[in-house]
Amino acid sequence: MVDLLLQVLLWSFYLLSLVLHLFEDLKKLAFSIALTLNSSPSASPLSRYLSWVGSLFATIQSIYHHTQGQIRSNVKRRVFEQHGEENYEAKNLAHTISCQDSNSKMKEKNEDKKGMHGILHSAQKKSGLSGNRGSAINSKLRVRPAKLFVPDFCPRQEFIEMGLKKLKEDKKEFEVEGRDFCLASKKGARREFMEDGHREMVDIMGDPKQAFFAVIDGHGGCAAADYVAENLGKNIMKELEHVGEDQEHELQQAIRQGYSVTDKGFLSQGVSSGACAASVVLKDGVLHVANLGDCRVVLSNKGVAHVLTKDHRLSSEDERLRIENTGGFVQHCRNGVWRLQGSLAVSRAIGDQHLKDWVISEPETKTIPLTSDCEFLLMASDGLWDKVDNQEAVNVVLKEKDSLKSCKKLVNMSSSRGSMDDITVMVINLRSFLAADHLQ
């Protein structure tokens, strides 16, 4: 019985909808004719009649919608009374009726908007409406603009834009001048960004004769170079706190431990880059030198260049054998450069997680007592030493009275000879660090 009642109601809905659509078409036609006639100076009886017909159609439409809502409510109530809420067919049937009604309303509303806009536009065109009256009609028909589309926040894009901005702001050349040292640095012509670094620590523990200096050459990015510049000196000084005076072996071991702690700290960052480094500790009139990779320290003693470090490159037979004995692959690449696993040209460095089975972070150290013959130290990355000889570099510093000018001159000399690498040069005046018994 309920199924038959529902079928009857559905057919009634269809018939009423058909009649309503016919009324809508007549209503639009009547409204169009009335609007056209109203545009004339005097309104005719026909226009008043058509206006009355339009009002009648609007009343019929509102009655229809009210009746339709009441029927829908009664159908839902009767269905749930007969079948209960647990009956999914009854639920679906009531939901289908509701959706059909909602879709029908929406469709009719859209058609009304389109039809009304077309009718008024046509009537305005025929009657020649213009000026304020035409503007008033257009303002009522103005369509709401579409919503703005706001893209989701993209932190990766913001990070890339900030990184590019930083690269643009980075200086290609810079210089530093301190009380007992000076430095000049230049970014390589083919480098995307500067990978060299440096660090100076003076007046350690309030002692003007204690200092730490380092020149750093990064590869695979600047992350390792930045980390070493920030942490190597602090780690070494922390280890030296536990070493007494006149304990050379323990002091060198403390420096090695400072390098090891720095290496482990950087590897824990999970960043794939590396850095070579050369450092010196000046303490109690003694020079303590350490290095990894191909940064170099040269001492000028009475104008003669003395190399205090050893380049850790794969062209060194002992370094190459050490790597091959531990399963590494060393290949002689183009331009006469030996490379580990076909990529890295140095055998010792901080970082390089992917090559850590062969690239060690243990530096070679050397201790030298300072004498009055020790004039200055020349520390530089391989961007200088690949193009400028050790003695030639010392001669440039000796010739120039201004140490900063000599640093810049050495940088320009290497660059003019075709160096495409980053170049960093540091000069340290050793006179200020001599022990009291060596001062003249």
Automatic annotation (TrEMBL):
Domain PPM-type phosphatase: 180-430
Single annotated GO MF: metal ion binding
Keywords per UniProt: Hydrolase, Magnesium, Manganese, Metal-binding
Signal sequence extent: none
InterPro entries (UniProt xref): PP2C (IPR015655), PPM-type-like_dom_sf (IPR036457), PPM-type_phosphatase-like_dom (IPR001932)
PROSITE patterns xref list: PPM_2
Pfam assignment, any one: PP2C
Necessary cofactors: Mg(2+); Mn(2+)
Protein name stated in the entry: PPM-type phosphatase domain-containing protein
